[in-house]
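Dear colleague,

Following up on Tuesday's group meeting, I ran the structure prediction for the two-component complex that the binding team flagged. I've pasted the input sequences exactly as they went in, so you can double-check that nothing got truncated or mislabelled along the way. The structure tokens for the whole assembly follow below. Feel free to forward this to whoever is handling the docking comparison.

Inputs:
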Amino acid sequence: MKNMMKLFLAGVAFAGLFASAHAEDKPTIEIMSSWTSGGEAAALNVIKTEFEKRGGVWKDSSIAGFGAADAAFQNRIVAGDAPGAKQGVIGLAAADFINQGLFNPIDDVASSGKWADALPKSIHDLISYDGKVYLAPTGAHGESWIFYSKEAFEKAGISQEPKTWDELFADLDKMKTAGIVPVAWGGQPWQQTKVFNMILLSQVGIDGFLKIYVDKDKSPASVEGVKKALEILGKLRGYVDAGAAGRNWNDATAMLITAKAGVQFMGDWAKGEFTVAGKEPGKDYGCMIVPESKGMVYIADALWFPKTGKAETDKAQKLLAEVVMDPAIQVEFALKKGSVPMRSDVDKSKLDVCAQKGVELMAAGAIVPDQAIVLTPQQVGALDDFVDEYWSGGSNDAAAAAENFFAVFE
Amino acid sequence: MSIKRKPNLSATIALLPTWFVAVVVFIGTMAWSIRLSFTNSTLFPSSTYVGLAQYSKLLSSAKWLASLQNVLIFGVLYVAGCLLLGFLLAAALDRKIRFESAFRTIFLYPYAMSFVVTGLIWQWMLNPTLGIQASVRSLGWESFVLDWVVNRDMAIYALVLAGVWQGAGLVMVIALAGMRGIEAEQWKAARIDGIPVWRIYVSIILPQLGPALAAAGMLLAMGVIKTYDIVVAMTNGGPGNATEVPAKFIMDNLFGRQNLGLATAGATVLVLGVIIAVAPFRYAMHMRDKAKGAA
């Protein structure tokens, strides 16, 4: 019996030794993301597959909902148990963590991969803090899109894309009479804010948009622009269905896929849902930049790399950064996610018609940053409150609301 | 004649961990949050004091004021609704009906579910394009409207409805236990006097259930202060600020908006509010006990 016990213990010890040696060999990483919808998960899987092919061990900690994932991540950081990587946006949200010294720089990967040459300068500036690169960009999203169901357009007798807001509203009226829900509205504050911003850009132009959000300019021209944007937003209220409040964006996209609704105002991640449903851009659905807009609002995703104090995770972070910025992976990821690759030197021929329009605008510099890039989380929250209050309050007093808009920056 | 007891050393030692937890965990964290509410902390705690700035920001926030008003409306209607419905259910079950235990299980069952599940179920049922409204309309009544969940003026009552549906079972069980403790003699006496059944419940049974219902009411009231999950599941605070509640305001600012200072200020105000609401009541109880002791 005693011998048996010894043998057993020796076996356990040996197995333990073997297992730990095995684990140390392989770069291991835990990824926390909120990419859980069909298209998003498929895109994340592109990175996962390549990462594992290159010998990494991947542990998925996906949490549905951007806010929920952020909250869980903050808890883990405060508890001293940070995950190896977190999906987040490029912008001020990451700055607080970096200033506290909580993230690992990935400078050596960036310099050996010549990221500075491959990325647009504005993006490279946004992922660098104090001259060091901290974030690995996965892709950019255009947020000025109107997606429309070709079937719904046909039923309502609409033959071409509207060029102005007036034409758009006329088309929405046609769909209403045809018994189709004109606008598949995502009724969450963050979605409403994005619609407000794409309308605002169409009214004030690129310089006006930057003046408002970057310079916090409160001149009469800015106030007037906000007012015009609010008027258009308010007009849209008449074209949404009763179940819009609180609706998820992918549920709204599903309304287009089934041709129950005509158009959706959303970022290009909506394409991922169409793709998962087997719909093709240009054939089953169309994409257009909102009327009268001379550019597009963009947001960029990246992976953040918290310090974990584990050597195998540090190794894995570098490997992951390499994988994410691999030109082939950037394209494949973009195809699944519906995004635009961050690198400007990738093969664009594979991208769909919508993404190519996006790439053109990006290359021409006709882009303005999403509020998450230029505002603090508190200001983003205040902006969400402002737009939600106007939308759901049913107030048509755009002029009074426009005056209050600038309190968002306080 | 009271015997002065010597403090028991081993008991004191045994209780030390409890004392430690009470002081460090409860009082300590509370003091820490109150301290944070006077700083300009955003994502991480900071030690730059800003005086009452967070409080003035809080009190000028329309969202916070709306959340206080909402929790008041919800709390009063939820507790009152649960107590009333729970008592009626208990009285009905007390009539020695058949399959009582089956009914008991059915009525108590909602309470076993989490608020998140309750919220989701009611959100689906009240959603005008999926739930009751859509099914009634599909049956032919085209003008039927039940859109509480998406209606600014009615959304808070939709929450009350879901809350009462869930909480009434608990009150029923407690009230039923209380009713079973009432002597059968009282029933017989009342019957002989020819008092109608409803009158027996109102004038004889109900007064004796006071302590049981007070306990149930207290349990429900504690739930009201931390109302969070049902709101998130059903309306997420919307439309607009129509169903925003303090606990959700605090959570949003703690995490999504990275605003520790404002969130802890909100939490402090909430605790103060509870103390202010409970203190006169406790004082009255204390004075009554004292008066009893003196008599």
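The longest helix of chain A spans residues 189-213.

Cheers,
M.
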